[in-house]
Amino acid sequence: MLAALLRRLGQMLFVMGGISVLTFAIFFATPGADPAARIAGRNASPETLAAVRHDFGLDRPLPVQYALLMKRLFITRDLTSFTNRGERVLPEIVAATPVTLSLVGGAALLWVLGGLAMGLVAAAARGRLLDRGLMALGLVGVSMPVYWLGAVVNLVTQSRFHDTWLFSWVPPLGYTAFADSPLGWFKSLVFPCTTLAILYIGLYGRVLRSAVIEALQQDYIRTARAKGLSGRQVLLRHALRTSLAGVVTMFGLDFGALVGGGALLTEVVFSLPGIGKLTFDSLQALDLPVIMATVMYASFFVVAANAVVDMLYAFVDPRVRDA
After folding, report:
1. CB count in 10 Å sphere of residue 320
2. Which of 50, 61, 149, 217 pairs with 313 at a CA distance of 20 to 30 A?
3. What is the dihedral sign for C-alpha 135, 140, 143, 146?
4. 48 and 54 in contact (C-beta within 8 Å)?
5. How far is the CA of 83 from the CAs of 2, 42, 102, 284, in angstroms?
6. Contact at 8 Å (CB) between 85 and 290?
7. Residue 102 CA to chain centroid, in angstroms?
8. Residue 245 in contact with residue 323, Cβ under 8 Å?
């Protein structure tokens, strides 16, 4: 077990190292890429460009630049922004991380519970009106873009009906830290989490329904029924458990991607200062140290989520554990 964990850790480090090299090459080493010209601005004199290159170490060989960047990001932790001189990158990442984790964590709780309920009920009512209605509802949720749904939610809760008893409790757009006010934190995330979760509830519900229906056709399900187990026991204890492998894979990939910045549209629409918003702003300003830091942050969560999914397989599906 320890050897497998160490091997997986080595794979994670290798993947993250490859991502860092590729990101560095895209922004620093591709032909025509000159970070000094972006920092100095348009029509900068050759003397200014030379001074900027020297100040930021851009006049050194590319391998040295990469090594210094990684050292300042992971070892000394004093990597500073190109756009905002003197402002350190890591505090920005640390400040934005709780926002994104709160948003994605709350949304994940909603979409997992909603997707499980929708998929199980639809599979149990296969071919009936309830099944068709739930699948149609899920399709509507999958088809609504997050930015459009978020704009509609803001129109209803922040403008048209904000003064009514139904939405008068909704705070202005933004984020309230849990340490400042737990109730304010909850209120500020209710609608962003719900908006982000609606897409995934429909997606997970449809995937789980198909997996459960397929599992109900297997021989071990017929054996369980022959032993006298009730339909609910067969559905929950046997069909559901073996159908969760695909859902677990999806959850790991989706959660890792969203925590890594995939919730950008939701953060922008609801004015949440999370990782996605930070990445978006740094890309607009071509702030390369911040871009590198957010890319490494995102790659860590995606790679870690995949590793956790692989380990969870043995607990979700007994056939994997026995293999």
Report:
1. 14
2. 217
3. negative
4. no
5. 44, 14, 28, 11
6. no
7. 11
8. no
DSSP code, position 30: S
Q: Which residue is listed with tokens 């939610």?
A: 153
- The values of phi and psi at residue 44, to 5°, are -75, 145
Quickly state the pLDDT bin for 114 (edges 50, 70, 90): very high
| Per-residue tokens: 144 | 């609504």
Contacts of 307 (CB under 8 A, 6+ apart): 8, 11, 12
Q: Locate 85 and state its tokens.
A: 């001189």
Q: Which residue has the tokens 């046997």?
A: 238
* Residue partners of 177: CB distance under 8 A and separation at least 6: 98, 185
Other CB atoms closer than 10 Å to residue 173's CB: what's the count? Answer: 15
Q: Is 269 exposed, middle or buried (0-12, 13-18, 19+ CB in 10 A)?
A: buried
Model confidence over 250-264: pLDDT tens digits? 888 888 888 877 788
What stretch of H or E contains 155? Answer: none
Size of the chain, expressed as the number of residues it contains? 323
Q: pTM to 2 decimals?
A: 0.84
Q: How far apart are CA 184 and CA 186, in angstroms?
A: 5
Structure tokens at 209: 């329904």
User: What gap in Å lies between CA 275 and CA 19, rounded to an integer?
Assistant: 18
Q: Is 145 left (phi over 0), alpha (psi -120 to 50) or beta?
A: beta
Contact (Cβ atoms closer than 8 angstroms) between residue 36 and residue 58: yes
- Residue 124 corresponds to which amino acid? A
Residue 298 clears pLDDT 80, i.e. is over it: yes
Three-class secondary structure of residue 80 per DSSP: strand
Which of 27, 101, 12 is CA-nearest to residue 293? 27
Q: How many Cα neighbours within 13 Å face the side chain of 236?
A: 7
Q: Assess whether pLDDT exceeds 80 at residue 160.
A: yes
Q: What residues form DSSP beta bridges with 88?
A: 80
Instruction: Output the six-digit token pair for 245.
Output: 């492998």
Q: Quick check: helix, strand or coil at residue 174?
A: coil
Report the distance separating Cα 219 and Cα 237, nearest Å. 15
Give the dihedral of Cα atoms 58, 63, 69, 75; nearest 10 deg: -140
